[in-house]
Write a structure and sequence with these properties.
mainly alpha; two-stranded antiparallel sheet; 77% helix
Length: 407
């Protein structure tokens, strides 16, 4: 079967090819992928470092959950505006600004850690109120959540502009595979760096990775944009919500995906509590557990990248059942070996629900509303933190195992 050349100069594979890595033949997708790797490596390393640092400074699961909630607020409240931006502005520029801002935020934690301004025994008197230094982490978490809310819809909505419809599931699967590969390696690296050098090393490294991502994105070509004709951002949001409400398939996929995320993802953000109070292990073992979960998710992504575009809804339901069952088993473990086994299946379920939910939404949405609809799907990142806040408060009362198992 012959191959053709797309508008970006990449050779398109045969229509019915089941090559697992076929989207990498597109040079623009490779640039996009390089930028994604820098961003997601930083996010995974920071997630582990920030959670563990806050828990060691406070010893409170509720404070850890509150920090996650602080990250969630802008992601929930501003994601819809990020969707409007994605439908109005060249997505490349949005991604460039977002990655550069993330590098600055990482440095704003690294420098206080290096200078000793951020530690358990340091506090500040602000207008007569004593504020512990860990509030720096809360404020930077809010800032990072704001950047994510405004940038991520553009990052996801650009994919259909650089790959063909028939390659969309493959591209999303490979994108998820890369994210999960970083869940495999980045947390383990972060754990070793924390043990060997200290928390500040994580934030300097992630700042450099964000800047590397800026370099990759700067080489992306400008893609098509759709100018929204409305009275303003709020009117654009209203039109997007009305569109989703009228499109039953999109509404069902969004609802199902968001519920799955709220109930399943808190385990990752509260993993430091589990490792230090149930398993009685340190940062190195925490990194290994998160990496093993990423390994399971990576396997799931590879499988999905090799499959044709068939029975995706049924596979999404199966992923949800696997994810719930694996999380219940995880919450009942009390030894490192058993926990390692269960998180593999948690990763498999997470990969399935993330990839298939994203693919189905991207496939059914009209181009005019793509950014705004993707912003609704990406609110799951904020709702994850909201779920972690609720689970953290519950863990203070009934224990981390019952809290996560109940979810």
């Amino acid at each position: 079967m012959s191959q053709s050349t797309n508008e970006y100069g990449g050779r398109e594979p045969a229509r019915f090819s089941l090559g697992t890595f076929r989207s990498f033949k597109n040079p623009v997708f490779r640039l996009f992928y390089g930028g994604m790797l820098g961003q997601m490596a930083s996010m995974n390393m920071q997630m582990l470092a920030r959670s563990l640092l806050v828990f060691r400074m406070t010893g409170s699961a509720a404070v850890l959950g509150a920090m996650s909630f602080a990250n969630a607020l802008p992601m929930i409240s501003l994601s819809l505006f990020g969707g409007v931006i994605a439908d109005r502005v060249q997505k490349k520029y949005v991604m460039l600004i977002g990655q550069a801002a993330s590098a600055v935020i990482a440095l704003s934690v690294a420098i206080p850690l290096t200078l000793g301004y951020l530690s358990a025994d340091v506090s500040y008197n602000i207008l007569g109120i004593v504020v512990p230094s860990w509030w720096i982490l809360v404020l930077t978490s809010v800032a990072q959540g704001t950047v994510m809310a405004l940038m991520m819809p553009s990052r996801q909505a650009i994919l259909p502009e650089i790959v063909d419809d028939e390659e969309l599931m493959n591209a999303i699967s490979l994108n998820t595979m890369g994210m999960n590969a970083l869940r495999l390696f980045a947390p383990a690296l972060a754990g070793f760096l924390i043990e060997a050098i200290g928390f500040e090393a994580i934030y300097y490294v992630t700042s450099g990775l964000y800047l590397a991502s800026v370099l990759f994105i700067s080489f992306l070509p400008l893609t098509s944009t759709i100018t929204i004709r409305g009275e303003g951002a709020l009117d654009d949001i209203r039109q997007g919500l009305n569109y989703v409400w009228q499109e039953t398939t999109i509404l069902l996929v969004l609802t199902f995906s968001l519920i799955l995320v709220v109930l399943s993802m808190p385990y990752m953000l509260l993993m430091p509590v589990f490792t230090e109070t149930v398993l009685n292990v340190g940062a190195k073992e925490l990194g290994i557990l998160m990496s093993v979960s990423g390994g399971g998710a990576m396997v799931g992504s590879l499988v999905l990248a090799s499959l044709p575009n068939k029975r995706r809804g049924m596979m999404l339901l199966a992923s949800g059942i696997l994810l719930g069952s694996a999380l219940l088993a995880f919450s009942l473990t009390s030894t490192m070996n058993m926990t390692l086994v269960t998180v593999v299946f948690v990763g498999l379920g997470q990969s399935g629900q993330m990839t298939l939910g994203m693919t189905l939404v991207q496939y059914y949405v009209d181009d005019e509303y793509r950014g705004r609809v993707m912003s609704l799907l990406l609110m799951q990142f904020g709702l994850t933190s909201f779920g972690a806040f609720l689970a953290g408060v519950l863990a203070e009362e009934v224990g981390i195992q019952l809290a996560l198992g109940g979810f």
